[in-house]
Here is the input.
Amino acid sequence: MSFYLGDLGSGKTKFTEGVLKYFGKEDEISSPTFTIVNEYHTDSVNIYHFDVYRLEDQDEFYTIGGEEYFEKGICLIEWGEKILDILPPNYRRINFSRNLENENRRILIFENFNDILDI
Here is the structure.
């Protein structure tokens, strides 16, 4: 499960296009801004692309059954900081920012989070 942080136009949806292409889904995608989630099914995995920007709060995510998707496949969540408290214990955060020296490039920082203690 990954969630994306970044300003509008920083490349979050474009990155998702690359993930889908890797899994053989080459059709044009769009950000699920108004539908909240777009589903993509491949022979090997289900991919769920969320955009939770328009949600008022985490309760709305529960209302649409959003947390049920976490166990069904790969979840890619734009604006995931809005539902941070209900994310599964292991997730990856990807920070997107624009490269000020080249407008066609982006800077991505990957961070892994988990609650498993290695004792």
Remarks:
- The radius of gyration is 14 Å.
- Helices lie at 12-22, 58-63.
- The chain is about 15% helix and 30% strand.
